[in-house]
Amino acid sequence: SEKSRTSSGWRYSHYFKLVETKERNVSVRCTLCPGEKLLSTAVNSTANLTKHLKGKHANMKLVAQDPRRGNDDMSSPTPNKQLKLHFHHQEVTKQELDKLVVSFIVDEMLPINTVESPTFRKILSKIPTTGDRRPWSDRRTFTGYLDECYLKMEIELKKTFKSLQYVSTTADIWSSHNRSFLGITVHWINPRNLNREKAAIACKRIKGRHTYDVIGFEMEQIHSAFGLSHRITATVTDNGSNFIKAFKMYAPPEPDEEEDEEQDEQGVVFTDVEELLETTEGQFSLPPHFRCASHTSATVKCAALWTKATRSTVASEIVDEICGKKIIVPTSTRWNSFHDALSHISDIPAEDLNTLCTGMDIRGPTEREHLFLKEYCSVLKPMTVALDILQGEENCYYGSLLPTLETLMSRTLALQNGLSRMTADLPGVIAIKTRFAPVLESREALLDALTLPKFKVREVAAHSSANEKDFFSFGEKKWRRKTQWPLLEVHNRFPRVKAVFMKYNTAIPSSAPVERLFSLGGLVLTPRRNRLSDKRFERLLLMRYNHPFCADVE
């Protein structure tokens, strides 16, 4: 029969047991699989069974049976010899292993001399490789390979920037171990999927005073090195006077309409090129400047309780004994940490708080002051949500700034009716209007917001946090459109709106990304590694921050 011809002519029929025959199909059970699951195949085809063996038992070394041995029945017993599991060791090339080692050293922020460790070399020797498997002779050889990887990453970044029409940057200065560094991050919107992407292009050592001219010159040099001078829509910094003056002094010149009209009337105008080069030597301009919205909203942070609890082990034990939890201390890199620290204290009952302060030999708050803390935290709560929104990177656009400020003012006003006389007169809304007057009166900021669908239709995207959804509820009844379009689909349907969106929303409202770069720098430039050269530190930090670009390097 066809069944017997198929079974006897196939080398792997002994791995299946015949269960049932139905016309031109047969049901079999695989003897290698646990359970009673049946497989179906045609009597004149073994394709399904071959696919099953390759998919489910690829790690097994299958033994082929000679068809001439006369195994003419699929129900014949399987060989008594137990099959051995076969673990295939896939060899890697020396180049692949080198890339893995670089990723390991850079991503885990390990010392470069790790490659000289006998234990590390022993681990590498156990990895099967093709060709030359000798490890690097010393750290100098490995450092040379690191430099090659960095240059390739830099080339990939420049290729990416060259394909973009608009980018934005954030900049700040960081000091550590008696050294100062200028950090710059670049942000853009991927035109294919409208996702936010980022990269760090500098953490350059700055010597001497941080004057406006030094900052302006260094920023212009870095922008030019990556071909960004004419692509940057805005640079976001903190409110440091040196940055503000640098962007004021080196602002791009505004075109003079009267001069343009005179040139049109005169026709061709001849210019002395040599004289022009002499007069413009050393002159440059910086891109438009946006002040960081989060820095503008920050408040002064100071309290005796935090100081006492962090500097004394006895005080820390008293806190743990009375409160059963640690005191949260505000940090300088998290702008809403002041609210978190105050809220943590206000949650402690007034009696326990006074007992705690007495044990630390400091004056405790009165009931009136404790009530003030609670109300003060409730007033600050909308601001902390606003700060979290503005400090985002992946889903935050500059168009979020104006709606966030408007909502913040409306929510602050709504809270005043439920406050006592102590906090009812807090000039929150007046302060917001004063500090953000340029943004609130800006047509450009309004245009940025109008190109974001979630504000235009008063919706919040599904990936937004619960706090963000509540923050932008506008006090209205929640509703959703029957058809919810993603951001990409909306802008693909309206290409002109997409063009405006790409131009005006490339910037982000906060300089938080460059602060995060410095936080990462603190993990690279540790006290035990403070002898790293400025150049080596910058390259290690940028490779760590830009690891997606390093992964794409061949």
From TrEMBL:
Superkingdom in the source lineage: Eukaryota
GO molecular function (one): protein dimerization activity
Domain HAT C-terminal dimerisation residue range list: 489-546
PANTHER family the record matches: TRANSPOSASE, TRANSPOSASE-RELATED
This protein's name: HAT C-terminal dimerisation domain-containing protein
Organism: Cyprinus carpio
